[in-house]
Design goal:
With 244 residues, the protein is an alpha/beta fold. The chain is built from 8 helices and 13 strands.
Length: 244
């Protein structure tokens, strides 16, 4: 199985620390490398990285990163990185023939999350999203979080940054089938901008968007200086498989 990591954006909220969010070192290990290593630990055979902003620089770093991580890492460039993140999903999914783990380059996870998520296949779903029910957890930035409202079976009813009420927060890790790319394309055809959440909502409306509760596992969206400081302090402890 492949993993698809989105690393195409500008990363404006982290610019005062690093001019390349995917290559921002967390206790000496670039964010993107953390994602690649964690995907490998979850059983992934190849990682596709979607590049955009400063694509040449990031793509030049991938061969050495792949050697360090011990897994093939290939680049797939999105045509216009300023468009919503669903366009990056479409670019990456175009070179992936089957199911895949989808991750954001600025999200890091304890090993158990991706390992469990990679096993969440089922004919009743087109996508499975890792969610955290601890909506008031101090590691979560409520101003930037994507929220999820669920039905009694744990399937998504609504997803977005402004929905209310909500039951859980989107952790930024998905097990996807080709249905997700089809849903994003359908959203675009329907006049939407092409965000990942818009595609997810189409699958949710069709009853095809499942979730996986991460329980008490650790994760962090490293999107601003506060989250960077938390990652520096906690990642070496929470990710022993990487930091030793």
């Amino acid at each position: 199985m492949d993993a698809l990591i989105i690393a195409a954006g500008f990363g404006s909220r982290l610019r005062e620390i690093s001019d390349s969010k995917p290559m921002t070192p967390i206790s000496g290990v670039p964010l993107l490398e953390l994602g690649v290593r964690q995907a490998k630990s979850a059983g992934v055979d190849r990682v596709v990285v979607v590049t955009g902003h400063e694509a040449e620089r990031l793509e030049a770093a991938l061969p050495a990163l792949a050697d360090r991580a011990g897994i093939p890492v290939v680049a797939q460039r999105v045509e216009d990185w300023s468009k919503p993140n669903g366009w990056s999903v479409l670019a990456g999914a175009s070179v992936i023939p089957g199911n895949y783990l989808l991750m954001m380059s600025d999200h890091i996870f304890s090993g158990s999350i991706l390992t469990r998520l990679a096993q969440q296949h089922g004919p009743d779903r087109g996508v499975t999203l890792a969610v955290d029910y601890r909506c008031d957890h101090p590691l979560i930035d409520p101003d930037d979080a994507t929220w999820v409202r669920l039905d009694k079976a744990g399937f998504i009813k609504a997803i977005g940054k402004t929905i209310d009420p909500y039951d859980a927060v989107d952790c930024g890790a998905f097990l996807c089938t080709p249905e997700l790319a089809d849903a994003i394309r359908a959203a675009i055809v329907g006049g939407k901008a092409g965000s990942l959440s818009e595609g997810m909502q189409i699958l949710a409306d069709a009853g095809r968007a499942a979730t996986m509760d991460i329980g008490s596992a650790w994760w962090l969206d490293v999107d601003d200086p506060r989250a960077f400081d938390l990652a520096e302090a906690q990642a070496p402890r929470e990710l022993p498989e990487i930091y030793g």
